[in-house]
Design brief:
This protein is an alpha/beta fold and 186 residues long. It has seven helices and six strands, in the order βαβαβαβαβαβαα.
Length: 186
């Protein structure tokens, strides 16, 4: 049903990886990506964790060393997002209201309005991250959610809609579905 409101192309991520740690950021740099917008909850940390672990701190250090402008872009509240962003020494946008464009525009403003093709959005949800990122013409990578048991009720509802979209993608574009290695459990 939801895919009737938006073009099908908005639900096609450019890539799929199991985790953020599986992304080759040097390859992103080679294709012209200069800005990384990354979701917080269930992309970097579960909802019930508030701080970055050592591996995540090292990832952000690598991103900064590669010269990326990195933003945490989250629908969550300021206190949670700011705490994490400060730990990883990155700027942030909270209450982004993804998939709406306003939060993305706030982040773009902070980076000086770069061309959309220089932005990579990384997230775990089709209904917020993929849909929002593709509507902005960003390069979008979807990753598996870290821990679904701790998700809020509204995220669980989004997962229900996401499952319907993935079933339709599987029926209408099997090659794409297989190429991204999307699993039935999504």
């Amino acid at each position: 049903m939801i895919e009737l409101l938006f073009k099908k192309k908005y639900f096609y991520p450019d890539d799929y990886k199991k985790t953020v740690f599986d992304i080759n950021f040097e390859d992103l740099k080679k294709i012209g990506i200069k800005n990384i917008f990354i979701d917080l909850d269930n992309t970097l940390i579960p909802y019930d964790i508030h701080t970055a672990d050592e591996r995540t701190l090292m990832l952000f250090e690598q991103l900064h060393q590669l010269g990326f402008q990195v933003f945490i872009i989250s629908n969550n509240k300021k206190d949670r997002v700011k705490l994490f962003a400060d730990m990883v020494k990155s700027r942030y946008v909270y209450s982004a209201q993804k998939p709406f464009k306003s939060g993305f525009r706030r982040a773009l403003k902070k980076v000086g309005y770069p061309k959309p093709e220089t932005v990579c959005l990384i997230g775990d949800q089709f209904m917020t991250d993929v849909l929002g990122g593709k509507r902005m013409d960003f390069y979008v990578i979807v990753v598996d959610a870290i821990k679904r048991k701790s998700e809020k009720w509204y995220t669980k509802y989004n997962r229900h809609l996401e499952k319907q979209i993935l079933q339709r993608l599987r029926r209408t574009d099997q090659d794409f579905y297989e190429r991204l290695k999307l699993q039935e459990k999504r």
